[in-house]
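pipeline/complex-builder :: batch 7 item 3
reading input block
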Amino acid sequence: MKYLGLEYITVIAGFLLLIVGLWGIISQKNIIKMIISFSIIDTSIHLLLVAIGFIRNRTAPIIDSSVDKLKAADQITDPLPQALVLTAIVIGIGITGLMLTYALKLYRQNKSLEINQYKSLKW
Amino acid sequence: MKILKNSILLVLLGFMTWMLFNLYKDYDSRDTLNDTARYYAEKGPDETGAANLVTSVVVTYRGLDTLGEVTILFLVSAIIGLLLKTENGTRKTAMRASSEFMITAAKLLIPMISLIGVYIFVNGHLTPGGGFQGGAILASTFILLLISISRNKIGHKVLELTEALSGLSFVLIGILGVILAAGFLDNKILGTGTFGSLLSAGAIPIIYSLIGLKVGAELSTIILELNQVQGKED
């Protein structure tokens, strides 16, 4: 049994959220619920990315009074995954807004948010 | 049929769980930085002058990514505007007027929240924060404005102008980096200054402020577009 540090808890939470989101996308019929599931998957990926960059007993990658500038490489966590997550969050917002707009457009066209009602792409 | 569907779903999720469990079993926490991160940690403070290493990665080392990201946000707001374009622009939806409390509270809070947003993106190179976070806070001010005063008084013009000008300046600063310094989006076009002070890290505070304004304007545009179709029947 491993020692259950913060990074392990974060990885487990990320994986659980990933499964919950996948279940939501596959099983839900309502378009809005599918969009929410997509956002849950998005969040789980962010958690996993941050967990990858985490190193125990180290501080945030900001050089201030708690970090020695010359020994920074031994005192801080990885800044790169955090920068990538910063990017991913903003892109996630954009994609969610776009999906909601499409949902709105679909609702205006057919007056329904149930995915079963849309058969034009079925063969 | 329903049982078949549910069992397929169960098998699929079970397979996914098994896969992720195997990934987790092999996962081991790191205790050293890899080469890239070590480079950022050792050379970053001297090369960029930014105390916040995440900022130096986002704005300088991976500045092109950030430019692309801001472009994606712009595209999203443009597409949403295109999709939700109202057929007759002057149409007004009936909405109850805000209460006195709401208006007074909004008048009190909006300047303060804007100030926090500006503080966060101006100090992006020193503290946890930056253009995207500050821009999101500015957009939250806009939501408060939208629900407190009538939406018909808010014009697109200011938002569009802010967005266009800050985006243009961002690219121009990037090109200045090619002429005056080592390459596109190099922050050394200005002096790096004293490490840890507000006016340091070259062009990073300027670039991050522009990103903050641009992100704030873009998110506000998205909110405004989505708000304009609220309660609309057609």
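note: The CA atoms of residues 177 and 227 of chain B lie 39 Å apart.
queue -> next item
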